[in-house]
Description:
alpha+beta, GTP Cyclohydrolase I, domain 2, two-stranded antiparallel ribbon, NADPH_dep_7-cyano-7-deazaG_red, cytoplasm, NADP, queuosine biosynthesis, QueF_type1
Amino acid sequence: MSDSSHPPLRPKHLGQPSELPASPEAAILDYVANPRVGDLYLVRFAAPEFTSLCPVTGQPDFAHLVIDYAPGETIVESKSLKLFLGAFRNHAGFHEDCTVGIGRRLFDEMRPKWLRIGGYWYPRGGIPIDVFWQSGAPPEGLWLPDQGVAPYRGRG
Length: 156
């Protein structure tokens, strides 16, 4: 890659034993070269059992996250993404901060053509909070399937 500020393409986690990071900030996301760099396509990660902590009560919060992106020169390595998301289980943050923070970090580090994240949070206090962020308008011609998470009705 021509930009030396981009993270190195030597995965730390792939094929190696890895422990859950102590925090999202301590997590290292790995990126590998996009094998279809000239093609416009969508990659989706669904994390239906995402967990973080309420910053006020310390109680667990649960969400179904859906991350969609159109790769640029790199793709995120899935094991490192799983460890990054798992590091939120002891992280105290509001739904908005967690959802947007995950999207921003992936976008800023991976530099995809486009990225969106949907955070479908389960209710606390009787109100589900859904949080959505995207990096901008999707590229023309990119197929954008529905994220497939129903509005809250016991979301099962």
